[in-house]
Amino acid sequence: MTAPDLLAHPAPAAADEALFTQIANDVRQRGYAVCPGALPLALCDALLAQLQAMPAERFERAGVGRDDNHTLNRFVRSDEICWITGDSPAGRQWLDWSARLQQALNRQLLLGLFSFESHFAHYGPGDFYRKHLDAFRGNTNRVLSLVAYLNSHWQPDDGGELLMYLDEARGDTLKVVPALGTVVVFLSEEFPHEVLPAQRDRHSIAGWFRVNTSTAGRVDPPR
Ligand code: OGA
Ligand code: MN
Mean per-residue pLDDT for 114-124? Predict the structure, then answer.
């Protein structure tokens, strides 16, 4: 194989490294990255297969922060979620990929990311998540949000976009289509965002990289 062939078909790990560098650069320059087709196809397939095999009871109504007020929760978000563990091959693969992203970001941005938590989210027709921040300034250790989409053949009429408020004073927003393989990374404290109502079933993964805020003698649990 000649050198140009190697460049045209980089090994998956090498392709990921180029992607991770792109994400690091975008986060450094503007605080967020939107990358269509970023999630490796084999990983998309594995996650989709797991979603299909999972009984609906594995999903629970999503909450908001530590608040247990269900009426308020329903007003803010109506999706349902299932936390991802390393117990399934697909979950393992996803956590490996996220861990490699975490390492690359720590190396390139010196963020000191320490742990990662993530869940599948299912939005049925009409479901939404109103405008929110994933972390409140100074009040949390969620530093970086990671969202990945698992929807084949998403059409413009299907709605369900992620609406990001890039600069509220200037009214700058960005709509991200939740198409299979698209990955979004952003600073959790900086960008309010919302999920617009979808017209059909919408699957995503939402995750958060955290820093360790342990004080003397007390180490943060991973979640
Ligand atoms: C979240 C979230 C975005 C999405 O779960 O906090 O903002 O597009 N998800 O699913
Ligand atoms: Mn969010």
Answer: 96
